[in-house]
Design brief:
Keywords: Decarboxylase, Lyase, Pyridoxal phosphate. Belongs to the group II decarboxylase family. Its cofactor is pyridoxal 5'-phosphate. It is a single chain. The chain is an alpha/beta fold. Helix content is 43%, strand content 11%. The longest helix has 35 residues. The N terminus is likely disordered.
């Protein structure tokens, strides 16, 4: 009996029956026998995912945190390492069913909480190939073609940003790691130029200057974490005054830099290219003029807003991004590849030299001279997945027109949702969407912040809609709570989007009736 035939048999044999013989050692996935297993397991996975999708009416199974914990207790209550090996197909089916049942369906039109795009079918299938072949990028012998594929992807994306032939970069585990690498690169380059100091080798102890990073209060939280990790200290972030939205103003950056004490060395300024709430973009070109005068590294955090690069309609909003010394992009946001698909780009690849200077068995000089070069020296990681594969196949499959249509489709959905919110007297729109985010809240006579917080929790507990929440800065200094629709699924229809807003209104009305009844 073949593996495929066995996978389709009726599961009537009890788990511990002596009639079932299970090999303790499975074949490697990439072997011929292993590929048979993978084919059977893939069929099981797709069949189970289809069943779960048909049975679930909303973007997540109803019940909230308590229900998820109880489901996990029931399905994961046994030992991680049972005494006896289990039958692979049945074990896999059980895990897939439970995992899918209690996962967020990112392809559902009401899954609008987070920056989790539904990946394209080619990206999902590419993940299977990457998992089977299990290449790495730290050494040539770990993944020779994968290395060339990453170099190709980085080169192409650098050109998309507007960088020249000296550019470089790496694929990362996401925007937080890309921002960490930006702060690391800025620290080493600027302190070497300004102080003759090599932090990667010498550390920071003994440096007679205080290195700082300049940012606004609206800068992404990952920058604070990065500054702490690289040893500068989160307290060494100098907050630059911003406008009412949180944008970094060139004149305020100039004033702040000019007013720093002599013992302070500014190593980096952080520009936002596509704020996650309202989508605004800093004037990168004007900021770059300031930072160059002062010898400061300018980093453009375009983890979300970088998607506009694919759209001729939205791309002009990112004019000047090529003036930044480094850029963060996340293609698991706008890009329709599965997580993780972070990108870190630098205008001058030589800035990554400190990472490559550490001599190991992975980068012997004679191997490098013969062309056996890995990518250990371009990343903070050694072993890395070949994430470039899914990026390359997705972009090749969609092409420029396809990527543009998907970005524009999400922007159009956001504009439609904003129109609908403005037409509803019970709802308030924070601002017209700049990219694909819509901020709204329900108008309530009492504590409007608390009410909208509870409204969000009720929607999620019922499994109706998954919303994010944020606070919106106001000119008067207040920051009220708003609910956030993050629209990253271009396949969503306007009718489906109407149902999301209808569910928000209906749930809010239920909450108000319950509150009135309890008075």
């Amino acid at each position: 009996m073949t593996i495929m035939q066995e996978s389709n048999r009726t599961e009537t044999v009890a788990a511990g029956s002596a009639a079932r013989q299970v090999d303790a050692v499975l074949p490697p996935a990439g072997s011929l026998a292993g590929l048979d297993y993978v084919q059977a397991l893939t069929a099981v996975a797709l069949e189970t995912l289809r069943e779960v999708t048909l049975d679930r009416p909303g973007p997540v199974t109803a019940g909230g945190p308590a229900a998820v914990r109880e489901a996990a207790r029931r399905s994961l209550g046994g030992p991680l390492l049972p005494a006896e090996p289990a039958y692979p197909l049945e074990t896999f089916r059980r895990f897939v069913r439970d995992y899918a049942t209690w996962s967020v369906d990112v392809s559902h039109p009401a899954a609008v909480a987070r920056m989790q795009c539904p990946p394209t079918p080619v990206a999902a299938a590419a993940e299977l190939v990457v998992g089977i072949l299990n290449q790495s990028l730290h050494a040539w012998e770990s993944g020779p073609y994968a290395l060339e594929l990453e170099r190709y992807v980085i080169r192409e994306l650098g050109e998309l940003v507007g960088y020249g032939p000296d550019a470089g970069g790496t694929i990362t585990a996401g925007g937080s790691i890309s921002n960490l690498m930006a702060v690391l690169a800025a620290r080493d380059r600027v302190l070497a130029q300004r102080c003759g100091w090599r932090p990667f080798a010498q550390g920071l102890t003994g440096l007679d200057k205080r290195p700082v990073v300049l940012a606004t209060d609206a800068t992404h939280f990952s920058i604070g974490r990065a500054v702490g990790i690289v040893g500068l200290g989160e307290d060494m972030i100098v907050r630059v005054p911003s406008d009412e939205l949180g944008r970094l103003l060139p004149e305020e950056l100039e004033r702040t830099l000019a007013g720093l004490p002599e013992d302070v060395v500014p190593v980096a300024a952080i520009a936002c290219v596509g704020a996650t709430d309202q989508g605004w973009v800093d004037d990168v070109a004007a900021l770059a003029e300031v930072t160059r005068r002062h010898g400061v590294w300018l980093h453009a955090d375009a983890a979300y807003g970088g998607g506009a690069l694919f759209s001729p309609r939205l791309r002009p909003r990112l004019d000047g991004i090529a003036e930044a010394d480094s850029v963060t992009l996340d293609l698991h946001k706008f890009g329709w590849t599965s997580a993780t698909s972070g990108i870190f780009l630098v205008r001058d690849a030589s800035v990554m030299t400190p990472l490559a200077q550490q001599t190991t068995t992975l980068n012997a000089d004679d191997d490098a001279e013969a062309g056996f070069i890995g990518l250990y020296g371009s990343s903070v990681q050694a072993t890395r997945r070949a994430e470039a594969f899914k990026i390359a196949v997705t972009m090749n499959a969609l092409g420029r027109d396809g990527m543009a249509a998907m970005v524009d489709g999400c922007h159009d959905l956001a504009c439609y949702a904003a129109d609908r919110v403005e037409a509803e007297p019970a709802l308030e729109l924070a601002a017209r969407p700049s990219m694909s985010t819509v901020l709204l809240r329900y108008r309530h006579d009492g504590d409007v912040d608390a009410f909208n917080g509870e409204l969000r929790r009720q929607l999620m507990t019922r499994g109706v809609t998954l919303l994010a929440r944020t606070r919106v800065r106001r000119p008067d200094g207040s920051s009220p709570v708003f609910l956030k629709l993050m629209l990253l699924n271009p396949a969503t229809t306007t009718d489906e989007l109407d149902r999301v807003i209808d569910d928000i209104l209906a749930t809010a009305a239920d909450l108000e009736r319950s509150a009135q009844a309890s008075r």
